[in-house]
Fold this sequence. Notes:
Number of helices: 22
CATH architecture of the largest domain: 3-Layer(bba) Sandwich
CATH superfamily of the largest domain: FAD/NAD(P)-binding domain
Number of domains: 4
CATH topology of the largest domain: FAD/NAD(P)-binding domain
Number of strands: 21
Strand content: 15-25%
CATH class of the largest domain: Alpha Beta
Amino acid sequence: MKEYDIIVVGAGHAGCEAANAAANLGSRVLLITMNMLNMAQMSCNPSIGGIAKGQIIREIDALGGYSGIITDRTMIQFRMLNHSKGPAMWSPRAQNDRVLFSMEWRKMLESNRNIDFWQDTVSGIIVKGKKIYGLKTGLGKTFRCKSAILANGTFLNGIIHIGEKSFSGGRIGERAEKDLTNSLIKHGFIYQRMKTGTPVRADGRTLNFDRMEEQTGDVNPGRFSYTETPKLSNQKSCFLTYTNSIVHEILKTGFDKSPMYTGRIKGRGPRYCPSIEDKIDRFSAKERHQLFIEPEGWNTIEYYVNGFSSSLPEEIQFKALRKVVGFEKAKFFRPGYAIEYDYFPPHQLNLNLETKIIEGLFFAGQINGTTGYEEAAAQGIIAGINAHLKINNKPEFILKRSEAYIGVLIDDLVTKGTEEPYRMFTSRAEYRILLRQDNADLRLTQKSYSLGLATKSRYDRMIEKYKKVSDFITLLKATNLSPEDVNVILEQKGTNKISQKQKAATILLRPQISLKEMINEISSIKQYAQISGDISEEIIDEIEIQIKYENYIEKEQELANKLVALENIPLKAEFDYMKIKSLSYEAREKLDKIKPKTLGQAGRISGVSPADISVLLVHFGR
């Protein structure tokens, strides 16, 4: 029986990040996947990032993960969403070449000598003394391990639904894994069913893009990685069109054959990414819904119809779509479909993503009830780090809610659980001003470098960047500008002129004024920028954010520091909450089920009130 330090099951976005992180930290890793050709497959939309999701990818990159690098190498369009709002809401999003994305991930993994590969399914876990001991595969092989990470995606007893047709599968054209769930149940795990879906794919040669609204990328495209990845010089457009009342009426004719409405689908679907039939049912007063038509790559005619996820019969899907503007003569590659699969409610996990039932066994990705490549990749890198730390008897690595969106994601899953596919939003984070996409490197690279994951070059680059930011801010706060220096530019921008000298930083506080304009128009600042060397747009944006939002950032940091006090009050895992009769019965039940590690985590459990927290403070002598 061959032995590895860590075995990762599944080569989706969670599995790839998990395997790479553990291997880069020095563990000997075996990555088991059903199909070596589909590593990091973009099963749904060919894009990375978006609202809050873009922040997660930047955090993964700052930790030394590879999702951001792969995205930059394979993107065909870049947009910074919400740029008209405050920087806490800025969210990078890339359109990607689906095939290249998978190929680049495979190349990256194969270049890591600490990773071996095995193409197979995993049918069961082997446990000795409540610790993971090994895994059994569909081909009858057994592998020993010190730790294992299950990142099975939608493959556990997956069933695909298209109208009245249902068949086994983890993705269209790929078989499901049918035995692993039973193996986990035998060891005491609870599972439930969940549902998600994917839209129609269309032949771009048959679409009339002239009748749609073109959506181009940013004029000056950014990137996800903090490393020197290639700058995007050429971009492909996406397009926007809409459904209409005729489309809706055609879709309604198929409701009696929809697995969702006939009850054949038992699992909960995603609230925030509903199917088209769900949209027209839940939002019946709405006359139209947006459809984003997204290219699948540089050299393909395939387009992804974002917004038209469906499990209706294919003939209904196609008939309805041909009534959409621009789709009058459309041909299709495949219909949309729903997929139903097993997941394991994440209250069965600790905050390091290790299961509470079996020591050394970790879950990451959709097996925990999440949806989205970004959420999966985030769990993957944290599981990979912690699996390595576990077998080397080192302290676990946990990110607080005030430190990263990744911390919010995992805390939400473990503390609150989920009954529908969990998706990240900026509104889920209490500290959005602190958790910006621009400063993920400042927040996380030092931590990762201390672990041994982020390289020294990454760390040095971060230190150099923020030294330039700090030095430039110091200059702006010290430099006096006279009316002669700035009044011309102030008048041009429609803001009040000054009558006496003011600090450059004070002038920059005005919303009409940007640092880039000050560098271009004010000689003393321009001269400093030239002397300082490479003052990139990334650095200019960071300086401007720190000055314009300084008071907001300081207030939010003060609040975070106060709440950290509760996070530092530990709770014993074996404590019996049922004996504290002064707690509400719901609080006793929830606390006993989740077993929070800190008082702060206890306070975020649904059903645990501030009064219950006060009771716990008194009980533990605080």
